[in-house]
Amino acid sequence: MSLLVVGSVALDSVETPFGKRDDALGGSATFFSTAASLFAPVQLVAVVGEDFPAEHVEFLRARNIDLAGLTRAPGKTFRWKGSYTYELNEAHTLDTQLNVFASFAPELPAAYQKARWLFLGNIDPVLQGRVLDQVQKPQLVAADTMNFWIGGKKADLLRTLERVDLLFVNDAEARELAGESNIVKAARAIQHMGPKRVCIKRGEYGAMLFDHDHVCAAPALPLAEVFDPTGAGDSFAGGFMGHVAAAGNLEPTTLRQALAVGTVVASFTVEQFSLDRLRTVTREQVRARFDEFRKLIHIDELA
Amino acid sequence: MSLLVVGSVALDSVETPFGKRDDALGGSATFFSTAASLFAPVQLVAVVGEDFPAEHVEFLRARNIDLAGLTRAPGKTFRWKGSYTYELNEAHTLDTQLNVFASFAPELPAAYQKARWLFLGNIDPVLQGRVLDQVQKPQLVAADTMNFWIGGKKADLLRTLERVDLLFVNDAEARELAGESNIVKAARAIQHMGPKRVCIKRGEYGAMLFDHDHVCAAPALPLAEVFDPTGAGDSFAGGFMGHVAAAGNLEPTTLRQALAVGTVVASFTVEQFSLDRLRTVTREQVRARFDEFRKLIHIDELA
Question: Within a domain: residue A303?
Answer without folding.
Answer: no
